[in-house]
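ok so I'm stuck.
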Amino acid sequence: MAGSEPAAVPDTAAVRPVFAAGCVLWRRAGAVGQIELALVHRPKYDDWSFPKGKLKRGEEARQAAVREVLEETGMTCALGDELPTRHYLAQGRPKEVRYWAAEATGGSFVPNREVDRLGWLPPAAAADRLTADSDRELVAALLRTLS
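replied:
not stuck anymore, here's the structure
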């Protein structure tokens, strides 16, 4: 159409962020003081990350974190300290993910459409396997809270 203006590209500052929550899930392993961290593999993105997901309408972040751990790993957990919040762009929208330290208290993993693998790794190996560099700071933050 002659004289039409192109559609404006939304300014990311004006776009409502996507709010999500997750956990750095851990369990005691081997000798006294040793732990393992749970990482999930998402086939859609072919990545390794911590369990996380979007908040449902009216859901508190803490509730969402526990729900996402159960949905993605099959594990129940006890929330501990809050860890650093991550901010990044996801599909062009700002995303805010709040994380908590969470000790696994039971359950078992069953592969599903969203998560096809669960890995329990010592902290250094988990940090190496994480796809997003920024997730590595969460490993260090968890270790500080547990010391």
